[in-house]
Amino acid sequence: MDKLIEWINSDIYSIVFTLITVLLSGVISLLISAVYFHVGNRNNLKMSVVYPIKRLLEEPCSTQNYKKLCSLSEEYSAKYFKKAEKKIILQMLEIYKEVSTYNEIWINADILFSYFEYTLKKNGIEPKVCPITDIDGNLIAYDYPLEVNYLVEDIVSVLEEQEKYFDPDECETSVIKLYRYYCENYYGANDIVFFSDYSYSQVLEMSKTKKKWDKTFDNMRKIKEKFFNLKIVCK
Questions:
Q1: CA distances from 104 to 8, 124, 175, 198 (A)
Q2: pTM of the model
Q3: Is the Cβ–Cβ distance between 168 and 200 less than 8 Å?
Q4: How far is CA 151 from CA 29, 141, 175, in A?
Q5: pLDDT tens digit string along 199-226?
Protein backbone atom coordinates (compact mmCIF):
# COMPACT_ATOMS: atom_id res chain seq x y z
CA MET A 1 0.00 0.00 0.00
CA ASP A 2 2.79 2.35 0.88
CA LYS A 3 4.51 1.53 -2.42
CA LEU A 4 1.27 2.29 -4.32
CA ILE A 5 0.93 5.67 -2.64
CA GLU A 6 4.61 6.36 -3.29
CA TRP A 7 4.14 5.49 -6.97
CA ILE A 8 1.10 7.73 -7.30
CA ASN A 9 2.90 10.61 -5.63
CA SER A 10 5.91 10.16 -7.85
CA ASP A 11 3.91 10.25 -11.08
CA ILE A 12 0.73 12.11 -10.12
CA TYR A 13 0.62 14.41 -13.16
CA SER A 14 0.99 11.56 -15.60
CA ILE A 15 -1.73 9.57 -13.88
CA VAL A 16 -4.13 12.52 -13.78
CA PHE A 17 -3.45 13.28 -17.43
CA THR A 18 -4.14 9.66 -18.36
CA LEU A 19 -7.40 9.64 -16.39
CA ILE A 20 -8.57 12.90 -17.99
CA THR A 21 -7.66 11.56 -21.42
CA VAL A 22 -9.63 8.37 -20.83
CA LEU A 23 -12.62 10.30 -19.50
CA LEU A 24 -12.57 12.76 -22.40
CA SER A 25 -12.30 9.91 -24.84
CA GLY A 26 -15.34 8.27 -23.29
CA VAL A 27 -17.36 11.50 -23.31
CA ILE A 28 -16.41 12.22 -26.91
CA SER A 29 -17.40 8.68 -27.90
CA LEU A 30 -20.75 9.10 -26.21
CA LEU A 31 -21.31 12.46 -27.91
CA ILE A 32 -20.39 11.02 -31.30
CA SER A 33 -22.78 8.10 -30.72
CA ALA A 34 -25.57 10.46 -29.62
CA VAL A 35 -25.08 12.67 -32.68
CA TYR A 36 -24.94 9.63 -34.93
CA PHE A 37 -28.19 8.23 -33.55
CA HIS A 38 -29.87 11.64 -33.63
CA VAL A 39 -28.93 12.17 -37.26
CA GLY A 40 -29.97 8.63 -38.11
CA ASN A 41 -33.34 9.03 -36.37
CA ARG A 42 -34.00 12.38 -38.06
CA ASN A 43 -33.09 10.96 -41.46
CA ASN A 44 -35.45 8.05 -40.88
CA LEU A 45 -38.11 10.54 -39.81
CA LYS A 46 -37.69 12.44 -43.07
CA MET A 47 -37.90 9.34 -45.24
CA SER A 48 -40.74 7.54 -43.46
CA VAL A 49 -42.91 10.45 -42.29
CA VAL A 50 -41.97 13.93 -43.51
CA TYR A 51 -41.62 13.26 -47.24
CA PRO A 52 -44.81 11.16 -47.43
CA ILE A 53 -46.70 13.97 -45.62
CA LYS A 54 -45.24 16.49 -48.05
CA ARG A 55 -46.46 14.45 -51.04
CA LEU A 56 -49.95 14.15 -49.57
CA LEU A 57 -50.15 17.89 -48.95
CA GLU A 58 -49.35 18.49 -52.60
CA GLU A 59 -52.47 16.53 -53.54
CA PRO A 60 -56.09 17.74 -53.24
CA CYS A 61 -57.57 17.42 -49.75
CA SER A 62 -59.67 14.32 -49.16
CA THR A 63 -60.89 12.20 -46.27
CA GLN A 64 -58.75 9.35 -47.55
CA ASN A 65 -55.61 11.50 -47.46
CA TYR A 66 -56.57 12.75 -44.01
CA LYS A 67 -56.58 9.17 -42.74
CA LYS A 68 -53.15 8.64 -44.33
CA LEU A 69 -51.82 11.80 -42.66
CA CYS A 70 -53.12 10.64 -39.28
CA SER A 71 -51.47 7.26 -39.79
CA LEU A 72 -48.15 8.89 -40.70
CA SER A 73 -48.28 11.17 -37.66
CA GLU A 74 -48.55 8.07 -35.47
CA GLU A 75 -45.56 6.29 -37.02
CA TYR A 76 -42.81 5.28 -34.60
CA SER A 77 -40.37 7.74 -36.21
CA ALA A 78 -42.78 10.62 -35.49
CA LYS A 79 -41.49 10.59 -31.89
CA TYR A 80 -38.37 12.31 -33.21
CA PHE A 81 -40.24 15.45 -34.26
CA LYS A 82 -39.17 18.47 -32.27
CA LYS A 83 -41.79 20.09 -30.04
CA ALA A 84 -42.39 23.01 -32.43
CA GLU A 85 -42.60 20.65 -35.41
CA LYS A 86 -45.08 18.40 -33.63
CA LYS A 87 -47.25 21.42 -32.82
CA ILE A 88 -47.42 22.38 -36.50
CA ILE A 89 -48.28 18.80 -37.49
CA LEU A 90 -51.14 18.64 -34.98
CA GLN A 91 -52.50 22.04 -36.06
CA MET A 92 -52.31 20.97 -39.69
CA LEU A 93 -54.21 17.74 -39.01
CA GLU A 94 -56.96 19.64 -37.22
CA ILE A 95 -57.46 22.09 -40.09
CA TYR A 96 -57.00 19.41 -42.76
CA LYS A 97 -59.77 17.33 -41.17
CA GLU A 98 -62.21 20.20 -41.58
CA VAL A 99 -61.13 21.01 -45.13
CA SER A 100 -61.37 17.35 -46.15
CA THR A 101 -65.13 17.43 -45.43
CA TYR A 102 -65.69 20.34 -47.82
CA ASN A 103 -68.35 19.66 -50.43
CA GLU A 104 -69.08 22.74 -52.48
CA ILE A 105 -72.43 21.55 -53.81
CA TRP A 106 -73.88 20.69 -50.40
CA ILE A 107 -72.50 23.87 -48.86
CA ASN A 108 -74.00 25.98 -51.63
CA ALA A 109 -77.29 24.12 -51.17
CA ASP A 110 -77.28 24.98 -47.45
CA ILE A 111 -76.56 28.63 -48.31
CA LEU A 112 -79.44 28.70 -50.80
CA PHE A 113 -81.76 27.12 -48.24
CA SER A 114 -80.78 29.82 -45.75
CA TYR A 115 -81.58 32.43 -48.38
CA PHE A 116 -85.00 30.80 -48.92
CA GLU A 117 -85.68 31.06 -45.19
CA TYR A 118 -84.40 34.65 -45.09
CA THR A 119 -86.68 35.67 -47.98
CA LEU A 120 -89.73 34.08 -46.37
CA LYS A 121 -89.12 36.00 -43.15
CA LYS A 122 -88.53 39.17 -45.15
CA ASN A 123 -92.01 38.72 -46.61
CA GLY A 124 -93.62 38.15 -43.23
CA ILE A 125 -93.73 34.34 -43.39
CA GLU A 126 -92.38 32.23 -40.54
CA PRO A 127 -90.64 29.18 -42.10
CA LYS A 128 -91.08 27.03 -38.98
CA VAL A 129 -94.82 26.67 -38.56
CA CYS A 130 -95.22 23.09 -37.36
CA PRO A 131 -95.49 22.72 -33.57
CA ILE A 132 -93.35 20.16 -31.75
CA THR A 133 -94.76 18.82 -28.51
CA ASP A 134 -93.55 16.45 -25.82
CA ILE A 135 -95.35 13.25 -24.78
CA ASP A 136 -97.65 15.30 -22.54
CA GLY A 137 -98.68 17.57 -25.40
CA ASN A 138 -96.71 20.56 -24.20
CA LEU A 139 -95.32 22.82 -26.91
CA ILE A 140 -91.52 22.57 -27.15
CA ALA A 141 -90.70 24.40 -30.37
CA TYR A 142 -91.66 24.89 -33.99
CA ASP A 143 -90.15 23.18 -37.03
CA TYR A 144 -90.35 23.34 -40.81
CA PRO A 145 -93.14 21.45 -42.54
CA LEU A 146 -91.80 17.92 -43.02
CA GLU A 147 -91.56 18.23 -46.81
CA VAL A 148 -89.51 21.42 -46.59
CA ASN A 149 -86.66 19.42 -45.09
CA TYR A 150 -86.17 17.92 -48.55
CA LEU A 151 -85.55 21.31 -50.18
CA VAL A 152 -81.80 21.10 -49.60
CA GLU A 153 -81.66 17.73 -51.35
CA ASP A 154 -83.67 19.11 -54.27
CA ILE A 155 -81.28 22.06 -54.57
CA VAL A 156 -78.33 19.63 -54.50
CA SER A 157 -79.91 17.74 -57.42
CA VAL A 158 -80.19 20.98 -59.40
CA LEU A 159 -76.58 21.96 -58.67
CA GLU A 160 -75.31 18.50 -59.58
CA GLU A 161 -77.23 18.66 -62.84
CA GLN A 162 -75.69 22.03 -63.68
CA GLU A 163 -72.18 21.19 -62.47
CA LYS A 164 -70.77 20.10 -65.85
CA TYR A 165 -71.94 23.20 -67.73
CA PHE A 166 -72.28 25.69 -64.93
CA ASP A 167 -74.39 28.71 -65.80
CA PRO A 168 -75.38 30.98 -62.88
CA ASP A 169 -78.45 32.29 -64.69
CA GLU A 170 -79.73 28.80 -65.45
CA CYS A 171 -79.04 27.67 -61.90
CA GLU A 172 -80.88 30.70 -60.58
CA THR A 173 -83.91 29.93 -62.73
CA SER A 174 -84.00 26.29 -61.60
CA VAL A 175 -83.60 27.20 -57.92
CA ILE A 176 -86.36 29.82 -58.15
CA LYS A 177 -88.71 27.14 -59.53
CA LEU A 178 -87.97 25.04 -56.46
CA TYR A 179 -88.50 28.01 -54.14
CA ARG A 180 -91.88 28.78 -55.72
CA TYR A 181 -92.99 25.16 -55.56
CA TYR A 182 -92.26 24.95 -51.84
CA CYS A 183 -93.77 28.37 -51.16
CA GLU A 184 -97.02 27.57 -52.95
CA ASN A 185 -97.43 24.04 -51.58
CA TYR A 186 -96.33 24.47 -47.97
CA TYR A 187 -96.77 28.16 -47.16
CA GLY A 188 -99.62 29.19 -49.47
CA ALA A 189 -97.52 31.97 -50.97
CA ASN A 190 -97.19 32.48 -54.71
CA ASP A 191 -96.13 36.10 -55.03
CA ILE A 192 -92.68 36.08 -53.44
CA VAL A 193 -89.84 37.42 -55.60
CA PHE A 194 -86.45 35.81 -55.11
CA PHE A 195 -82.99 37.26 -55.83
CA SER A 196 -84.36 40.78 -56.16
CA ASP A 197 -82.09 42.10 -53.41
CA TYR A 198 -79.04 39.94 -54.18
CA SER A 199 -78.26 37.97 -57.31
CA TYR A 200 -77.79 34.21 -57.18
CA SER A 201 -73.99 34.62 -57.32
CA GLN A 202 -74.01 37.33 -54.65
CA VAL A 203 -75.99 35.14 -52.27
CA LEU A 204 -73.32 32.45 -52.53
CA GLU A 205 -70.35 34.83 -52.33
CA MET A 206 -71.61 37.06 -49.51
CA SER A 207 -72.88 34.36 -47.16
CA LYS A 208 -71.34 33.89 -43.71
CA THR A 209 -70.83 30.23 -44.58
CA LYS A 210 -68.74 31.15 -47.62
CA LYS A 211 -66.64 33.59 -45.56
CA LYS A 212 -66.14 30.94 -42.88
CA TRP A 213 -64.85 28.45 -45.44
CA ASP A 214 -62.65 31.09 -47.06
CA LYS A 215 -61.03 31.64 -43.66
CA THR A 216 -60.63 27.89 -43.14
CA PHE A 217 -58.92 27.47 -46.51
CA ASP A 218 -56.69 30.44 -45.74
CA ASN A 219 -55.71 28.81 -42.45
CA MET A 220 -54.92 25.61 -44.36
CA ARG A 221 -52.71 27.56 -46.75
CA LYS A 222 -50.84 29.20 -43.85
CA ILE A 223 -50.26 25.99 -41.91
CA LYS A 224 -49.03 24.24 -45.06
CA GLU A 225 -46.54 27.07 -45.58
CA LYS A 226 -45.30 26.62 -42.02
CA PHE A 227 -44.84 22.91 -42.63
CA PHE A 228 -43.03 23.37 -45.94
CA ASN A 229 -40.74 25.95 -44.34
CA LEU A 230 -39.59 23.59 -41.58
CA LYS A 231 -35.87 22.82 -41.86
CA ILE A 232 -36.49 19.10 -41.83
CA VAL A 233 -38.77 19.54 -44.88
CA CYS A 234 -36.55 21.97 -46.76
CA LYS A 235 -33.31 19.98 -46.41
A1: 85, 30, 16, 20
A2: 0.76
A3: yes
A4: 73, 21, 10
A5: 998 999 999 999 999 999 999 999 999 9
